[in-house]
Automatic annotation (TrEMBL):
Chief localization: nucleus
Keywords: Nucleus, Protein transport, Ribosome biogenesis, Transport
Localization per Swiss-Prot or TrEMBL: Nucleus, Nucleolus
Region (Disordered), start-end ranges: 1-35, 523-627, 743-805
InterPro entries given in the database record: ARM-type_fold, Sda1, SDA1_C, SDA1_N
Name this protein carries in UniProt: Protein SDA1
SDA1 N-terminal domain boundaries: 86-461
Ranges of compositional bias, category Basic residues: 764-805
Superkingdom of this protein's organism: Eukaryota
Ranges of Polar residues composition bias in the record: 751-761
PANTHER family: HSDA/SDA1-RELATED, PROTEIN SDA1 HOMOLOG
Organism listed in the record: Hibiscus sabdariffa (roselle)
Length: 805
C-alpha cells in the first residue's frame, strides 16, 4: 500500500485530521462516500500526480536506454501508476476538478506508449479503460489509441486492449444500435485496415472479424470491408481474410458467457423444458419472501432456457447458409480482380488453393460468369493432384445454369477421362462419378446419352463406393431426364417426359405462384359431390327397380305383349332423352342414355325370368286375366317413368350445384384479390402436393438452382463410402482398440497354476499312492504303447492280410 507523501501534513493538519495516516485505497473509499469533505486531499493527490508525471518525463528524456523501456527510478513509475488509478476511480465524483485529467492521461499514453515500462503502461491503460467504462471518455476518441496499443510487443496489454474494444462496442449495441456512432467507429477501423502497415491492418482485421462473427456488426459495410482486404499488399493479411471467409460457416457462436454455456449444456442434456402453471403460481404466491425470490429466479432461468432452446432449434432447423461474400457490392469485379492476382501470384500451393476456393464460392453464390476460370481449373484435374477433392468441390461450386455449357464441357470431359475408366483406382472412379453427378445436377445439358449409358454400367462394380455413385447418377437422371437412360434403368419416374431447360430458358411467373391449386381443389370438391350425388341417385333408382321387379313377379304376361311393352318403354325413353337435350348438355345426355340402357337391360332380364316361370295352361285363364294385365302395365309404366324423372332431376340438380360452386370460386378469384384464407389454403395444398411427390420419388428431391448456389459443396461428400488405406500407426491403433475387452495374455500352464477349486483328475493320478507291482505294470504298458506307435509311424496300418489267416 502506498501512503501519502510527507508534504501532505500541512493540508491534513489544516483539515483537522493530522493524526490519521490514510493510504490511497482507504482514502479512495472515504472520498466516494463523502466527496465534499475531501476536496483538499483530492487537490493534493492531483498535484502529486502531475508532479510525478513531469518528473518521469524528465527522467525519460535524460536516461533513455532502450526501446523496451526507460532506465528511470522504479518508485516514480509505481507512484505515477497508483495515482493514475486513484484519480480514475474518483473522477465521477469530482467532474469539475478532474475535467482535464482524462484527456491528459490519454495524451500521455499516446505520446509515450512505446517508451513506458510494461507495468506502468498496463496500469495507465487500465485507468483509461475505467474512464471509458464510466462514460467519461467516448470510445470514439480512444479507439485509435487502443488499436495502436495492440500493435505493441506486449501480450498482456494487447489482450487487454482487444477485449476492451470488442466488449465496449458489443455493450454499446446490446439494447439498440446507434448507426451514426457505429459508422464513425467503423470508419476508424476501415482506415486502419487499408493502411500499408501490416501490424495495424492485422489488428483491425481481427477486431472486425470478431465483431462480425459475434453478430455485433453484422451489416453489409463490415462484410464488404473484410472481403476487400483480400487485395491488401501483405500476403499475411490476404491469407487471414481468405481463411476467415472459407471457415466462417464452421465457426460456432461462442459469444455467450460461461453461465450461458453451462446453461446450454444443461439444455443439451435436458432438451425439453416445461413450465407448469403450478410452478408459476408457487413462485409468486406461496412461501416466504426469500423462498418466493428463489422460485422467481429459478422460473426466470427456466424461461431463459426455453427461449434459448427455441432460438437454437430454429437456427439448426433453418437451412440458411450465410457467408460474408453474400454482401459484396461488386461481386464480378471482386472475382475478376482476385482471379488476376491468382494468375500472377507466386504463393505456395495451399494459398492458391484458398484463393481458388473463394473465387469458386463467389461465382456460385452470385451466379457469375468467369469463362477463364474453368480452363485454369483444367490444369489441376488429375487423380494424383494434392487436395484433389477440394479442387473438384470448387469446380462443382463454380458451375451453375447461367454459365454456357460450352465453357464447362472441356473440364467436364477431362474429369470423365482422367477419373472414370477401367484402369483407374476405385477411389478415383467413385470421386469422379460423384463429381459428375453434382455437375449434372447444376448443368444437366453437359450429359449425352452415350456417355451416361457408359457411366451407368459401373453400378455392377463390386466396390461399394463405385456402385453407390453410379446408382446415384441413375437416380438423378430418372428425375431430370429419364429419356437418356435405358428402359430398364428408368424405373417408374414421376414425369417420364421430363427434360432439362435449354440454356437461357427462364420460367416467368404471370400469376400468383401455385394459384392453380385452388382451382384444382375446387374441382376435387365438386367431383366428390358429384360422386356422392351419383351414389344417392343410383341407390334411389335401385330401389325403384326393385319395386318394379316385385310388381312384375306378381303379374305374368305373354311374350308378345311384353315385347310390345318394352318397345313402348324404349319409345318413351327416346322421347325423354329428346326433351332433355333441350335443357342439358351432351355429357348429361350421355349419362342419361347410359342409365336408361342399364334400366332396359334390367327390364330384359326381368322379362326373361317372368316368361320362363309363366306356363299358360288354357286360353280361358289368359282371357280372364287380360284386365289384370292391363292394370299392371299401366302401373308398371307410371312407376318406371317416375323413376327416370327422379334420376334425371337428381343429375340436373347435382350439375347445377357443381356449376354454381365453380362459378362462385372463379368469381372470387376473377377480381385478382386473394385473402389470407386463400394463401393458407395454397400453402396447405402445396405441402400436400410436395408430400405426395416426395412419396412418389422415395424421398429424393432435386433442390432449386438458388439452393444449389447458396449452399457450399462439402468435399467429404464426394468421397462417400470410400475406404482409404490405413498407415501402420492407424492399423496398430485399431488392433489395440480391439484388444481392450480382452484380458492380459497368459500361458495355459500359468492359468492352471492359478486355478482355484481343486486338482484335475490327471494331477490326482500323479499324486496317487500305488504299490510297486502296479507301478511296474504301468511302466511296462507305457513302453509297449510307445513301441507300437514307433512301428506304425512310418507306414499306414492296413490290417491283417486275408491269406495270412
Amino acid at each position: 500500500m502506498v501512503s501519502l507523501a510527507s508534504g501532505s501534513a500541512d493540508p491534513l493538519s489544516a483539515s483537522g485530521r493530522s493524526s490519521e495516516k490514510l493510504s490511497l485505497p482507504s482514502l479512495q473509499s472515504k472520498m466516494k462516500t463523502d466527496p465534499e469533505g475531501y476536496g483538499t486531499e483530492l487537490h493534493l493527490v492531483r498535484s502529486q500526480f502531475y508532479s510525478a508525471l513531469e518528473l518521469f518525463q524528465q527522467q525519460a528524456a535524460l536516461n533513455f536506454s532502450s526501446i523496451t523501456g526507460v532506465g528511470a527510478d522504479p518508485t516514480v513509475a509505481k507512484d505515477l501508476g497508483d495515482r493514475a488509478m486513484f484519480l480514475a476511480h474518483v473522477t465521477p465524483f469530482y467532474p469539475k476538478q478532474l475535467a482535464e485529467f482524462p484527456s491528459d492521461l490519454a495524451a500521455f499514453l499516446k505520446s509515450s506508449a512505446r517508451t513506458l515500462p510494461s507495468g506502468l503502461r498496463f496500469h495507465v491503460t487500465q485507468a483509461l479503460i475505467l474512464l471509458v467504462n464510466r462514460k467519461i471518455i467516448d470510445i470514439k476518441d480512444t479507439l485509435a489509441l487502443f488499436m495502436e496499443l495492440q500493435t505493441l510487443d506486449d501480450r498482456n496489454l494487447r489482450k487487454l486492449a482487444f477485449s476492451h474494444v470488442v466488449h465496449s462496442i458489443r455493450r454499446m449495441n446490446k439494447n439498440h444500435k446507434n448507426e451514426a456512432k457505429n459508422r464513425a467507429l467503423q470508419n476508424v477501423l476501415f482506415a486502419l485496415l487499408q493502411q500499408e502497415d501490416e501490424a495495424k491492418a492485422k489488428r483491425s482485421l481481427i477486431t472486425l472479424s470478431e465483431l462480425h462473427r459475434r453478430k455485433v456488426w453484422f451489416d453489409d459495410r463490415t462484410a464488404n470491408a473484410i472481403c476487400m482486404a483480400c487485395f491488401h499488399s501483405s500476403s499475411r493479411i490476404m491469407i487471414a481474410v481468405l481463411s476467415f471467409l472459407l471457415d466462417y460457416e464452421k465457426i460456432e457462436n461462442d459469444d455467450e458467457d460461461i453461465d450461458d454455456l453451462s446453461s446450454e449444456d444443461e439444455i443439451a442434456k435436458n432438451p425439453q423444458v416445461v413450465i407448469s402453471k403450478e410452478t408459476a403460481y408457487k413462485a409468486h404466491h406461496k412461501g416466504t419472501t426469500a423462498s418466493k425470490k428463489k422460485k422467481k429466479a429459478k422460473l426466470q432461468r427456466a424461461i431463459r432456457s426455453m427461449k434459448r432452446q427455441q432460438r437454437l432449434s430454429s437456427e439448426t432447423s433453418n437451412n440458411s447458409y450465410y457467408s460474408p461474400l453474400y454482401h459484396l457490392k461488386d461481386a464480378q469485379g471482386f472475382v475478376e480482380k482476385l482471379f488476376s492476382r491468382l494468375q500472377t501470384c507466386n504463393e505456395r500451393f495451399e494459398v492458391k488453393m484458398m484463393m481458388l476456393k473463394v473465387i469458386a464460392r463467389t461465382v456460385g453464390l452470385h451466379r457469375l460468369i468467369l469463362l477463364n476460370f474453368y480452363p485454369f481449373l483444367q490444369r489441376y484435374v488429375q487423380p494424383h493432384q494434392k487436395d484433389i477433392t477440394n479442387l473438384l468441390a470448387a469446380a462443382v461450386q463454380a458451375c451453375h445454369d447461367v454459365v454456357p455449357p460450352d465453357a464447362v464441357e472441356p473440364l467436364f470431359k477431362q474429369i470423365v477421362n482422367q477419373f472414370v475408366h477401367d484402369r483407374s483406382r476405385p477411389e478415383a472412379i467413385a470421386v469422379g462419378l460423384n463429381v459428375i453427378r453434382e455437375i449434372c445436377l447444376r448443368m444437366p445439358l453437359l450429359m449425352n446419352e452415350d456417355l451416361l449409358q457408359d457411366l451407368v454400367l459401373y453400378k455392377k462394380s463390386h466396390e461399394k463406393a463405385v456402385s453407390a455413385a453410379a446408382r446415384s447418377l441413375i437416380t438423378l437422371f430418372r428425375e431430370i431426364c429419364p429419356s437418356l437412360l435405358v428402359k430398364k434403368d428408368r424405373g417408374r419416374p414421376v414425369n417420364p417426359k421430363a427434360k432439362p431447360k435449354a440454356y437461357g430458358e427462364v420460367s416467368v411467373l404471370s400469376n400468383v405462384p401455385d394459384i392453380e391449386l385452388l382451382e384444382h381443389e375446387d374441382e376435387i370438391d365438386g367431383s366428390e359431390d358429384d360422386e356422392s350425388g351419383d351414389e344417392a341417385a343410383s341407390i334411389s333408382s335401385d330401389d325403384g327397380i326393385g319395386d318394379s321387379d316385385d310388381e312384375k313377379s306378381q303379374y305374368t304376361a305373354d311374350g308378345g305383349s311384353e315385347d310390345e311393352d318394352i318397345e313402348d318403354v324404349d319409345d318413351e325413353n327416346d322421347s325423354i332423352d329428346e326433351g332433355d337435350s333441350d335443357d342439358c348438355d351432351e355429357e348429361n345426355d350421355d349419362e342419361d342414355n347410359v342409365e336408361t340402357e342399364e334400366l332396359d337391360a334390367e327390364e330384359d332380364d326381368d322379362y326373361e325370368e317372368v316368361s320362363d316361370s309363366s306356363k299358360p295352361d288354357d286360353s280361358a285363364g289368359d282371357i280372364g286375366n287380360e284386365d289384370l294385365k292391363a292394370k299392371a302395365r299401366k302401373r308398371k309404366f307410371s312407376d318406371f317413368e317416375g323413376q327416370l324423372i327422379a334420376a334425371d332431376t337428381s343429375l340436373r340438380a347435382l350439375k347445377r350445384l357443381a356449376e354454381a360452386r365453380t362459378s362462385g370460386s372463379s368469381s372470387d378469384l376473377a377480381d385478382g384479390i386473394l385473402s389470407d384464407e386463400h394463401f393458407q389454403k395454397i400453402k396447405k395444398l402445396k405441402a400436400k402436393k410436395e408430400a405426395k411427390t416426395a412419396l412418389a420419388q422415395q424421398g429424393f428431391k432435386i433442390p432449386s438452382s438458388d439452393q444449389l448456389s447458396f449452399k457450399r459443396v462439402d468435399p467429404s461428400k464426394l468421397e462417400a463410402h470410400i475406404r482409404l488405406k490405413l498407415n501402420k500407426e492407424e492399423r496398430l491403433a485399431l488392433v489395440k482398440a480391439g484388444r481392450e475387452d480382452r484380458g492380459q495374455y497368459q500361458a495355459r500352464t500359468a492359468i492352471k497354476q492359478n486355478k482355484t477349486g481343486g486338482l484335475s483328475n490327471r494331477q490326482k493320478e500323479h499324486k496317487k499312492y500305488m504299490p510297486l507291482a502296479a507301478k511296474k505294470a504301468k511302466a511296462q504298458r507305457s513302453r509297449q504303447e510307445k513301441n507300437k506307435k514307433r512301428l506304425r509311424s512310418g507306414k499306414q496300418f492296413r490290417g491283417k492280410k486275408a491269406w495270412k489267416q
